[in-house]
Amino acid sequence: MEPIGQRLRQARERLGLTQAEVERATHIRIHHLAAIERSDWDALPSPVQARGFLRNYAEFLGVNAEAILIDYAGLIGNRRPRSRPETAGVPSLSRRPRWLSQDLLVTTAIALAVLATLVWGGSHLMASMRQQTQADLNGSVGLTIPTSAVTPSPTTALDTGPNPTSAPVLVPTGSIASPTVTPTLAGAGAVSIRLEFDKRAWIRVLVDGSEKYIGRPGPGDNLDFQAEKTIELITGNGAGVHVFLNGQDLGRLGDLGQDVDRIYTVTGAQTPTPTPSPVPTITPRISSTSTPSATPIAPGG
Asked: Is there a contact between 62 and 11 (Cβ–Cβ < 8 Å)?
């Protein structure tokens, strides 16, 4: 059987091609073509590249590439690698594994940098969230209403009239931040109102002319009052108070921060008429009358 290189050289010469022309067409360097044609396999970079050169060269020349590769596989399987003259007697240097390529190292470095950035950003985000949560908790604790019995305001005095127990009693419902406050009233009157609070608001309540409650209920608190004739409600934040008169929803008293004064009777809600202040009248001062002078009498008159 003719050597592989001889068969490829003869096929090239039959086509009338030079090695330079083959190099331009196949992009196989001319010194590699020369090594293949003289069957000098040690001059090629590696067996893998040699197989690639042989396939491209054979297909370009129209030679059976599979037969060439089979012959080459049998050839390198039966031969022992010989040391190259220039490296004989010199210990071979350990080559870096192919998986430790430069691209892999760069990709790994980029991935580690991105991971470190994510970890750093996540830690800062978690710290910020913890600080915000702690601040919210501190704010909530500052507004917490104790669940123990609420001490009435100094201005909230028990009624000394016929119903001494008609003063509202604050009863917590178990909510810590804004417990529902439900005053209990003795007897049933003709006028009944229920106050539900969406926002904290200062209020003052007069039942039949007597002051029954003054304070600052918060969101979620409820107050109920009953009277025989009138219930007067005064607040400094109309948007925070929702009023129900005898079970009828009258809506909020007013706008945010609006001062409102309402009187509730059996017929509905009324706004008290302001009493005009007396205008002082100026009494004109009486001017003193000058004393007429005596008229002189002419002599001999």
From this structure: yes
Cα gap 14→257, rounded to integer Å: 106
The answer to whether 206 and 156 are in contact (CB under 8 A) is no
Phi–psi pair at 83, nearest 5 degrees: -75, 140
Task: Please say whether the beta carbons of 202 and 236 come within 8 A.
Answer: yes
Nearest CA-CA partner of 4 in 78, 77, 58 = 58
Separation between Cα atoms, residue 204 and residue 200, nearest integer Å: 13
Q: Which tokens hold the place of 94? A: 């350990």
Cα 45–Cα 46–Cα 48 angle in degrees, nearest 5: 130
Q: Euclidean distance between the first and final Cα of the chain, in Å?
A: 191
Task: Read off φ and ψ for residue 242, nearest 5 degrees.
Answer: -110, 125
As a whole number of angstroms, the distance between CA 134 and CA 140 comes to 10
How far apart are the C-alpha atoms of 170 and 215, rounded to whole Å?
11
At residue 150, the pLDDT reads 45
Query: Which residues touch 156 (CB under 8 Å, ≥6 apart)?
Result: 167, 168, 211, 212, 213, 214, 215
Do residues 213 and 183 make contact, with C-beta atoms less than 8 angstroms apart?
yes
Alpha carbon 12 to chain centroid distance?
73
- Round to whole Å and give the CA distance between 235 and 199: 12
Give backbone dihedrals phi and psi of 134, rounded to 5 degrees, phi first: -65, -40
Dist. CA 28–CA 218, nearest whole Å? 89
Instruction: Tally the C-alpha atoms within 13 A of residue 293's C-alpha that lie toward its C-beta.
Output: 3
- 161-197 pLDDT, tens per residue? 444 444 444 444 444 444 444 444 434 568 999 999 9
pTM: 0.32
CB 123 within 8 A of CB 117: no
Q: Is 34 helix (H, G, I), strand (E, B) or coil?
A: helix
